[in-house]
Amino acid sequence: MRHEPYRPILITDARQSQDDQLRSRKLRYTVMMGVRVGCLILGGALVAVDAPLLAVWLPVCAVGMVLIPWLAVLIANDRPPKDEHRLMSRFSARRTEEIPPRALPAEPAAHRVIDGEP
Fold first, then answer.
1. How far is CA 110 from CA 94, 102, 104, 117, in A?
2. Given this model, what pLDDT does residue 22 score?
3. Cβ 68 vs Cβ 33: under 8 Å
4. For 28-77, what is each residue's pLDDT tens digit?
5. DSSP string, 53-73
6. Could you give the CA distance from residue 25 to residue 12 in angstroms, rounded to a whole number?
7. How far is CA 17 from CA 4, 21, 99, in A?
8. E-strand spans in the chain?
């Protein structure tokens, strides 16, 4: 079995901190909800001015108002993907470890028995 050489993990390869990840997910969620509000306002404005092709634009705005919250929640709950070298090192470490036996020994070891009476 050929072992891969050890590759040190550089600080530039470090993942984002949990606070930075949360901040970026909140920002994406807020932007997507802003787009949803924009769809709502645009739909209302189109109805108010009786725009041409209203039958085309209102369903587009409605789809945006329905799909964007669902996508925003999915994206906000998504975490960054795992690094390939970290994932591979974890799997290769599992393969090289020996599995301890699960059965008890067949013959009990001889133990010294101490009686309380002389």
1. 35, 21, 15, 21
2. 87
3. yes
4. 999 999 999 999 999 999 999 988 899 999 999 999 999 999 999 988 88
5. THHHHHHHHHHHHHHHHHHHH
6. 21
7. 29, 6, 34
8. none
